[in-house]
Write the structure tokens for this entry.
Amino acid sequence: MAYSIFLGTSKNRYELHVLELEENLHEYIFKNHIKSIRNDSRFYRMSDYYKDALFFYEDIEVLISELDKLIRESNDSKFIDILISIKKVCVAAIVNKKNLYCFCD
């Protein structure tokens, strides 16, 4: 199983599979760095490996800002690399005017 992120629309949630986080990487983010992730942030929505997270196109810029802040404030290169990968997916969603659908599959 992995935590998958898809770009899509409300009519086609699974339009494009863009990123897959293995459970150990997901755990690395949300167990090792949970103190730096605000629990009212959009990024925190992804913290439960078994719970779906949806980011509408209109919310993705805020998610990118949160990721940028975490990247700037971290000195953990592995964490930063993962966040950059997630940010690239967010940018692709904006360019393509798609929502992000995240879930364990």
